[in-house]
Amino acid sequence: MKSIIGFFSRNRIRKKLILYSIVTTMIMGIGLFFTYNNARMLATGMDAIFSNNKYLSDLSNSVTNLHSILENFLSTNHSDSLKDYYKFSGELRMTGEAMSQRRDSAESGLLLKDIGNMIITYLDSADAAVAAKRGRDIESYISHYTEASEVFEYINTNINKLTLNQFDENTKGYTMISGRVNLIQALNLIIIIGIIVFNMIFIIRMTYKITEPIIGLSKAANQISKGNLEVNQVTVHSDDEIGIMANAFNRMAESIREQMKAIKEAAELEAKYKEQEMQYLLMKNHLRETELYALQSQINPHFIFNTLNAGAQLAMFEDADRTYHYIQCFSNLFRYNLRSLDNPVTLSDEIENIDNYINLLKVRYTDRIMYRCEVDENVTSVQMPCMILQPLIENAFIHGISSLESGGIITLRVKGVNGNVVIEVEDNGVGMSPEKIRKVLSDTDENLPGMETSTGHTTGIGTKNVIKRLNNFFNKQDIVDITSKQPGGTKVTITIPKS
């Protein structure tokens, strides 16, 4: 309790805002609860009126329907009519017995009880007429049918009478409900207007008290920011956080005035240094962006991606499943290429992109290339830079096995070793010379003709670029290792930490 009191005493503006929110919420809640309660009562009354009217209407329809079935059976002696009669008469008898047992002393209740007794009497006569008809006793079934018809007329007469009584009662109820609706509308209007007026007054007052010293502080701060340190002290009469802030601001302005002369020369030198540093960072950032855009500029991204999607949909509609799969893989490959190279991805995303690329190669080169994927799914959630594996797979195909007439194999292995994730891209192609491996792994920007920007690449991202981005991303060297035999193939190994 003491901590709560201390909290509010230290945060007086917050206390004002919380109290305002509580008061307005309670007022709105009371108004809404009152409105909801009255609306529920009105809905209950209207439901009762509707239920009574529907009950009498259904009862009249049931009796009329049964009488029509009875007449149809007596005139045609059809078995279907007899089945319908037994079905509906049983249901109507249960309704009549329930009505006859009512203990309502009101006029409408007594009428409903009489109607229930009449329904039972009607059913007894109708059952007798049906039995006589089935026994071929013409005089008996005519007599019972006549009695049933008379009772049927009495039932309809009493239902109509009860309906009129219900109408009178419903009219009174509706008049009462209508009056309450008008009252509720007036009360709701008063509550809404009261809340609006209260909120406006409170907000205007609170806003004025809070913003007046803040405006003074902002003007003084604006003058100081323009170099005018001889500003008047900001005067605030409140003892809340704004008053504390104004006093702190006045002390800060005084301190700045006292120290400005002593540090002016040093500040100028520091400003020049900061400006040069910002220019350097800006140039470095522009250079980085230019490199990334240059890498991705070889593709006309959105046009090609949308065109491929349209082609895939057309192939699907024409039931060209292989063409659809081919275009879909091509589209997914381009969509992956559209990603920003600065955004990290998971190893699983990279492997999925490789699957799309290999599917395209298999369609083009059929049996000339075989792809093996040996992946430990437990380590594929590791984060890594985008577009790492595809350039390596492309190099393995273009520079490794593309010259082979058949039997070319590219293998991708992913496994966890000693807290690291080891990724291997291996081919059984022509291999690489030690000199070329040294140039690829070196930190210098030596050009590798035919290795970095082959026309067969889809990205224009070379192996040296992959190595640099891996080193920068994980902030460590020696992430990539290359071993090769001539002939015999090349294996590129990437070792990255799991976390």
List the topology elements.
Layout: H1 2-10, H2 12-76, H3 79-100, H4 107-134, H5 138-225, H6 241-296, H7 301-317, H8 321-337, E1 345-346, H9 347-365, E2 369-375, E3 383-384, H10 389-401, E4 408-417, E5 420-427, H11 434-441, H12 463-474, E6 480-485, E7 489-497
Parallel strand pairs: 2-4
Antiparallel strand pairs: 1-3, 4-5, 5-7, 6-7
Could you explain how this protein is built, in words?
- The chain has 499 residues and is α+β, with helices and mostly antiparallel strands.
- The protein has 2 domains: 2-198, Four Helix Bundle (Hemerythrin (Met), subunit A) (Up-down Bundle); 341-497, 2-Layer Sandwich (Heat Shock Protein 90), CATH 3.30.565.10.
- It contains 12 helices and 7 strands.
- Strand 4 and strand 5 form a beta hairpin.
- Helix 2 crosses helix 3, helix 4 crosses helix 5 (138-225) and helix 5 (138-225) packs across helix 6 (241-296).
- The model is unreliable at 449-456 (pLDDT under 50).
Structure in a nutshell:
The protein is 71% helix and 9% strand.
CATH architecture descriptor text of the largest domain: Up-down Bundle
Tell me the name of the CATH class of the largest domain: Mainly Alpha
Largest pleated sheet: 5 strands, mixed
Order of strands in the sheet with most strands: 2-4-5-7-6
Relative strand content: 5-15%
What pattern of helices and strands is seen along the backbone? HHHHHHHHEHEEHEEHHEE
Mean pLDDT: 77
Span between termini: 45 Å
Helix tally equals 12
Q: What gyration radius follows from the Cα positions, in whole Å?
A: 45 Å
